[in-house]
Amino acid sequence: MENQPLLKVNQAGISFGGLKAVSGFDLEIHQGELIGLIGPNGAGKTTSFNLLTGVYVPTEGDIFLEGVRLNGLPPYQVTRKGISRTFQNIRLFNDLSVLDNVKVANHSRAKHSMLSSILRLPSHFNGEKEMEDKSIELLRIFQLEHVKDELAKNLPYGQQRRLEIARALAAGPKLLLLDEPAAGMNPQETHDLMELIRFIREKFDLTILLIEHDMNLVMGICERIYVLDHGQLIAEGLPEEIRSNPKVIEAYLGEEVSSDAQG
Amino acid sequence: MDWIQQLVNGISLGSIYALIALGYTMVYGIIKLINFAHGEVFMIGAFVGFYAIAGWGLGFFPALIIAMAVCAGMGMLIERVAYRRLRGSTRIAALITAIGISLFIQYLFIYFRGAQPEAYPEVISNQTFNILGAQISSQSLMILGTSIVLMIVLQFIVHKTKIGKAMRAVSHDMDAARLMGINVNTTISATFAIGSSLAGAAGVFFGVYYTKIEPLMGVIPGLKAFVAAVLGGIGIIPGAMVGGLVLGVVETVVSGLGYSLWRDAAAFVILILILLFKPSGIFGKNAREKV
Amino acid sequence: GCGSDSAGGGESGDTVKIGANLELSGAVASYGEGIAEGIELAVDEINKDGGIDGKEIEIVKVDNKSDAAEATNAAIKLTENDDVVAIIGSATSGNTVAQAQVANNSETVLLSPSGTSPNVTVNDDGSLNDFVFRTSFIDPFQGTVAANFAANELGVKNVAIYADNASDYAKGLAASFKETFEAAGGKIVAEESYVAKDTDFRSTLTRIKSANPEFIFIPGYYEEVGLIVKQGREMGIDVPLMGADGWDSPKLVELAGGDSLNNTFITNHYSSGDPDETIQSFVTKFGEKYNGSSPDAFNALGYDSVYMLKDAMERAESTSDAKKIKDALSETKDLTLVTGIISVDEDHNPIKSATVLEYKDGEQVFKTKVNP
Amino acid sequence: MNTKKIKGFWLFVILSIIVYFAVQMAANTGMINNYHVNTLVYICINIILAVSLHLVIGITGQFSIGHAGFLAVGAYISAIVTMKLSLPFPIALIIGGIVAALTGLIVGIPSLRLRGDYLAIATLGFAEIIRIIFLNIDAVGGAAGMQVTKMTTWTSAFICLFITVLVIVNFTNSRHGRACISIRENEIAADAMGINTTYYKVAAFAIGSFFAGIAGGLYAHNFYIIQPVQFGFLKSFDILIFVVLGGLGSLSGAVISAILLTIVSTFLQSYPETRMIIYSAVLILVMLYRPQGLLGTKEITDLFKRKSVKGGS
Amino acid sequence: MLKVDGIDVYYGNIHALKGVSLEVLEGEIVTLIGANGAGKSTLLKTLSGLLKPKQGVIQYENQSIVGKQAQTIVKAGISHVPEGRRVFSNMTVEENLELGAFVRKDKEVQKDIQKVYELFPRLFERKGQLSGTLSGGEQQMLAMGRAIMARPKLLLLDEPSMGLAPIMVKTIFSIIEEINETNGTTILLVEQNAHMALSIAKRGYVLETGKVVLTGSAKDLQESDEIRMAYLGG
Ligand SMILES: Nc1ncnc2c1ncn2[C@@H]1O[C@H](COP(=O)(O)OP(=O)(O)OP(=O)(O)O)[C@@H](O)[C@H]1O
Ligand SMILES: Nc1ncnc2c1ncn2[C@@H]1O[C@H](COP(=O)(O)OP(=O)(O)OP(=O)(O)O)[C@@H](O)[C@H]1O
Ligand SMILES: [Mg+2]
Ligand SMILES: [Mg+2]
Fold first, then answer.
1. Interior/surface letters D189-220, b for 16+ CB within 10 angstroms, e for the rest
2. Are A30 and A207 in contact (CB under 8 A)?
3. Neighbour tally for C1: CB within 10 Å
4. Is residue D1's pLDDT more than 70?
5. From CA B249, how far away is CA B256, in angstroms rounded?
6. Out of E135, E138, E231, whose CB is closest to A187?
7. What PROSITE patterns does UniProt report for this protein, alphabetically (chain E) (predicted)?
8. Atom of ligand 1 nearest to the CA of A47
9. Residue A55: helix, strand or coil by DSSP?
10. Among residues E16, E25, E37, which one has the least CA distance to residue E159?
11. Burial class (CB within 10 angstroms; exposed 0-12, middle 13-18, buried 19+) of A18
């Protein structure tokens, strides 16, 4: 049992109209790993996240989480099974407070019923209190407690990105998917983000799969890297292997990048 | 039941819906506003045509041109006064304003001339042909012909001319359109002018074909035209045409089968069924939000 | 706890306050407006002549948006806030029914100019609404007259009925027509409906045509009937058509066209071509006040409602005691109005004779008179 | 945090009791007449309608413009229960509400898959279908309508209003309400956070329909007659206007605008010629100069909060 | 060529630019760097007329362009490639390029389209494709090509490398240099990727919370310790 991968993707694919956005996608992630997914623009990275989270139903292949087949489950059930994500273009609940954003993600772990809330039974108060405590604790970890009553849309960009990760964690995932978490951040901010990702992995005993174009980040923290191009895997391996893989250099990195990234 | 006759009836009715829906869908396509006042512009067109014919003794075509011109002006005025300020606001705010404008025009009109109906004079003689046992009136042929021609013209304007390209650019992204040097206000005004002049034309045709016009005449056809536009895929010009015809034929067939009281219900049932199976209308692309 | 004090209402200074609860906006605004025009003409005349008992009439006009809830509200406002002694309204039976209980409870006279449904004055449970009256026929009467005319005068056997289903008036007429006509041995070969505000009737007409009726009864209002007649004739339906007072409007002729209207008949309260003095002076005065237009049935009924109240007040010798006025109203006898010589029966309905008219090249021509 | 909310709750209860008795006293002593009481009842009905639609549009973000359909169901069903089955009025109200909620489910389950304008037109269509069904049932009078005895009183209207507001406020301020709001804010993200969006959309729709049905029962038993024409799309627009004018997402906004507009509309009855012109002009001007609605997304209590903070410091 | 003096820009109550001044000379590449929310995009939007400054002067070729409509500014020769590309997604690549030349009345539009295709051969391959279906890098090329179609004298580029694959970033930057060299187009470049930006620019400005905090030649900035720490990742 120990050897069963947390996530196993078997020849998954999807087409839009005639376009095969992803095909023959294989992926195996074990408990506790931190994996990178890279590839040129339009390679199908975000689409593969959408497959994993039930936003799109794969037209071929299978997806298993801890041996349970996920194909065809709607996103909210996939989340309850243990995969949660952030979005390439931030999707916060803009007009909700920071705290409520996190509470929403706590939703499916709370038990109190609609009736108990409408009648304001004790179970409602207990349930809400518990949600609130848990959420505040998360915000504290992400250094967002001081802005908990702000509306999400009023946060600066960097805090919005962090809030999105906090929110995803509140859903209690085993596997966390991050789609370009460092997009639009400068090197310093990116550096802080790397620390944060490492930290939450330890703290929450998480498995993480992330998409990123910033090679400093990817090469810096990922243990293994998958490379997609035109919807297909072209390489898989350790950061050093990927960095020197000619196919990857041709399709994605460009010739001199190895020297640049060190700079 | 006389199938051919009913089909003819349905297409005549449907082409009126189509004519109104064309303008509707055009405006919607560009600024995504359900312009409830469209029905009232249609009403104004009918009355302007009426006054031109009955009051000033003009012929059909001059009356049609005047009505279209006045309605174009009305459309631009409505946009300028009521919608432009709301461009940055929620769409629902614009929708409520549109409902407000629609009521305002109706009752301003009633205030000045009363609610009683008016009868259109017969300006073009109406002949009836007998084809395959069905009676076809020359007027309904004319209306169908006009809608088809206008549809083609509109399609041409939107897809082939410079102003059409500007319209499409504005509809996708107003700020980016500005950066191309497109004058967004002018473009939207032009859209309203074209859409409203179509409504005006529809008003005159309606008056000639159905004779009766009254200040609240825009309400139901306005709603039906909206339904037709949604049915065809909102914002899509040929969709409005087809949606209008489908609606007309469905209504006629249901009445023809003796369920005239269920006619509107049937139209809505068809609409809902189409939306459920093809949520963006007959011609709409099922564009899912890209995640 | 109402009624006790409002019986003395209506007398503020030396005017007679009468409410008008009408459809001035919404779907049937044109009916309400027609009644209002008639009322205003009558009030002008009466006030110029020195009013009732020396008191001027003051009309408090309220709009009920063609909506029953608003009509109730408006009636409560008229009785409670404006203290009117009587209300004229509304154009449709439903909106009148909506105020009937308010009138009873607050002891205010309610006179409906054109609410023709029997349940305006007599409730569904058979009880009489003490304070509620009307100026118009009730539906069954006109339907009966039309059926007898078709069966006896025109001698037709197979007929179709094409009724406005959104109007209780038209439905009432259709029902009584059917009953009487079938009792007389006739056959209804097609029964179809339309809904007010429709403009395209061709599909149903096609259906009626294929049933081959010898005569079509079309109860409804002129706005739609005009189009039905026009479209029917265009489709080659040339059998006689018949309707009722709802057809009576000069607009009908404009909408349908004089030609199409040939070989059509209506039952009506009166004929505007009738040389009768009351009628002619009404038509003239109406034209003078409303720049040349000629009155329709709503105008005439609104006008008559005011005179019916005036007559009752004079006989009751009170312009303020609603109880006395309603007693006087229920004793109305042989009162000459534009829409006929009326007496009120025990169900508070006016008994008046109906006239059958035929359209000839756009003119109404007197055909027969039928007494109830 | 929680104690504050509890305080607010008791404040609401006490305030309601005061309002209720104040009106009751005024009516008993003749300070206000029947007309005023009737207007207040009408206001209660309109607030219930506004608040119930607020749950669907303002909270859950589902653009439904066919609310009059559920009003009609509640009105007719409750009228049948009292007039034909001779059951007591409170039972009629509840049955009316339940049938309206079931109708809400039937309408909501298929149509809530649609978005934006397509949802709007579908709900409008359903409402018209409901209306046409009543128009064609002769047992309820068809077009002529159905006579209904007046049973709605200030007390019954106020109790219904109180319960409606309480339930909707309690629902909104719970994890369930937050789930609905998250759907309004970003449906895709809500889904990704484990919210069963279909369930909550339909639930909000059904609850909204339930209270619209209750309002329908009060409505039917207040105006002596119900007719299908009363429940056309213009009625739906009236309710929609309450919600948008008050500020989408603001319950107190919906309440305030329902009160204001009912008063404005009633007041304008006496100016029949210009009534609708003024009404529509008010509507246009408010939207042009306050497109976010009277209160925006704020609640009236937020305004007090800010003031008291300022005053306190 | 462009001279900005003490402009203040607000979004409602938010004071986004506080007395910003800067200068761009003819033929230069000038870069503007700064953290998220510093106001870089706001500045570009103000220059191209999408936003109106509350105060301050903007001189373009010795004429004030404050308060001018965006379309007038485009005609005067300033093209803006907005953040996030903003291509007209339901229109084809070629239609997008044609729109870029919207303000032009001359007959050489077709010729210029060919020139853009030479610059971006990838766009030529996809000229009939709806631009919404292009990949991010392709869309960025399209956005730049579209801006060039207006024959601008001054090109404003807002984070052209955002979200692009490393190989695309390189391509885009070399194209920027090419545009500058072959057409002589002056370029004001906003970038997060300070390293790359400074490597092609002549001069740079650093913006922080709505204020210019540092300015100098690209070389100086690259060597400044503060910059290295904050924007070049040590
Ligand atoms: N809903 C959709 N409909 C049609 N095509 C789609 C859809 N979603 C994605 N695609 C297409 O699938 C391909 C892969 O897109 P995807 O967003 O997964 O790329 P990506 O690898 O995430 O790129 P980037 O790094 O630019 O984000 C693209 O060509 C895209 O246009
Ligand atoms: N439409 C808007 N409404 C309100 N505030 C805005 C708006 N756009 C930007 N802002 C605010 O103005 C400030 C400057 O934003 P701007 O987009 O110019 O930053 P930037 O430097 O371009 O950042 P980035 O690197 O994220 O693109 C930020 O605080 C931002 O929150
Ligand atoms: Mg992506
Ligand atoms: Mg920016």
1. bbbbbbbbbbebbbbbbbbbbbbbbbbbbbbb
2. yes
3. 8
4. no
5. 10
6. E231
7. ABC_TRANSPORTER_1, ABC_TRANSPORTER_2
8. 18
9. coil
10. E37
11. exposed
- Find out whether D90 and D211 touch, Cβ atoms under 8 Å: no
Residues 6+ apart with CB under 8 A from D215: D45, D46, D48, D49, D52, D71, D74, D160
DSSP states of chain B: --HHHHHHHHHHHHHHHHHHHHHHHHHHHHH----TTHHHHHHHHHHHHHIIIIIT---HHHHHHHHHHHHHHHHHHHIIIIIGGGTTS-HHHHHHHHHHHHHHHHHHHHHHH-S--EE----S---EEEETTEEEEHHHHHHHHHHHHHHHHHHHHHHHSHHHHHHHHHHH-HHHHHHTT--HHHHHHHHHHHHHHHHHHHHHHHHHHH-EE-TTTTHHHHHHHHHHHHHH-TT-HHHHHHHHHHHHHHHHHHHHTT-GGGHHHHHHHHHHHHHHHSTT-SS----PPP-
Question: What is the tally of structural domains in chain E?
Answer: 1
Q: Which of residues 115-174 of C touch D (CB under 8 A)?
A: 117, 119, 123-124, 165-168, 171-172
Q: How far apart are CA A239 and CA D67, in angstroms?
A: 59
Determine the distance in angstroms separating the CA of D117 from the nearest CA of chain C, rounded to an integer.
26
CA of E199 to the centre of ligand 3 (A): 27
Burial group, residue A96, by CB count within 10 angstroms (0-12, 13-18, 19+): buried
Q: What is the CATH number of the domain that holds E10?
A: 3.40.50.300
Q: What sign does the dihedral E92-E95-E99-E101 (CA atoms) show?
A: positive
Domain ranges of chain D: 36-230
Q: How far is residue D238's CA from residue D46's CA, in Å, rounded to a whole number?
A: 9
Q: How is chain B split into domains, by residue range?
A: 2-277
Residues in contact with A156: Cβ distance below 8 Å, sequence separation at least 6, in sequence order: E36, E37
Task: Determine the Cα angle at C226 with ends C224 and C230, to 5°.
Answer: 120
Task: List the one residue out of C152, C149, C159 whose CA is nearest residue C214.
Answer: C159
Interface test with B, best of A55, A78, A179 (most B CBs within 10 A): A55
Domains delineated in chain A = 1-82+173-263 (3.40.50.300), 95-170 (no CATH)
Query: Which of B179, B236, B289 is the best substitution to test chain E (most E C-beta atoms within 10 A)?
Result: B179
Interatomic CA distance for residues D225 and C90, integer angstroms: 14
pTM: 0.91
Strand C109-112 to C86-89 pairing:
parallel
Q: Give the pair of three-digit tokens for residue A22.
A: 């992803």
* Closest by CA position to C220, among listed C189, C188, C198: C198
pLDDT tens string, chain C, 372 residues long: the values are 333 344 444 445 689 999 999 999 888 888 899 999 999 999 999 999 989 988 999 999 999 989 999 999 999 999 999 999 999 989 999 999 999 999 999 999 999 999 988 889 998 888 999 999 999 988 888 999 999 999 999 999 999 999 998 788 898 899 999 999 999 999 999 999 998 888 889 999 999 999 999 999 999 998 899 999 999 998 889 999 999 988 988 889 999 988 999 999 999 888 777 788 888 899 999 999 998 888 888 999 999 999 999 999 999 999 989 999 999 999 999 999 999 899 999 999 999 888 899 999 988 888 888 877
Q: How far is E180 from B13, CA to CA, in rounded Å?
A: 61
**Nearest residue (CA) to ligand 2, atom 18:** E39
Fold annotation for B2-277? ABC transporter involved in vitamin B12 uptake, BtuC (1.10.3470)
E194 touches chain A (CB under 8 A): yes
C184 lies within 8 A of chain D by CB? no
By the 10 Å C-beta count (0-12 exposed, 13-18 middle, 19+ buried), A66 is classed as: middle
How far is the C-alpha of C120 from the C-alpha of D147, rounded, in Å? 10
